[in-house]
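Re: the request from the purification team.
They wanted to know what the chain is likely to look like in 3D before they choose a buffer screen. I agreed to run a prediction and write the result into the notebook, where they can find it.
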Amino acid sequence: MFIAMNRFKIIKGEEEAFEAVWAARRSRLDEMEGFVSFHLLRGPEREDHTLYASHTIWETKAAFLAWTTSQQFRDAHKDAGKNKPLYIGHPEFEGFESVLDQPAIAEAAK
């Protein structure tokens, strides 16, 4: 499993606009082999921003890397520059490869 996260510092008062951008966006992730799930996470509020993270789960790192070079990725990100007034700085990418998995008890009993 590979988890890809981007962290965003959203200017206070712009949270609804930021969430609306994501809600209206056609990601095309569902067209990609190895894609498992996507989540937009709202984190702690600071004095000047609210922290958000986009979080995708992939079967493998290779599946994620294929996404980053795909037409679907280019289409999903083509308007990203239009949203700069919502951010403080640039999104910060973090990628994680699974080294230990523990399924839920009900899942493990199957």
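For the purification team: Helices lie at 15-24, 61-68, 71-77, 105-108.
Please add any questions underneath this entry.
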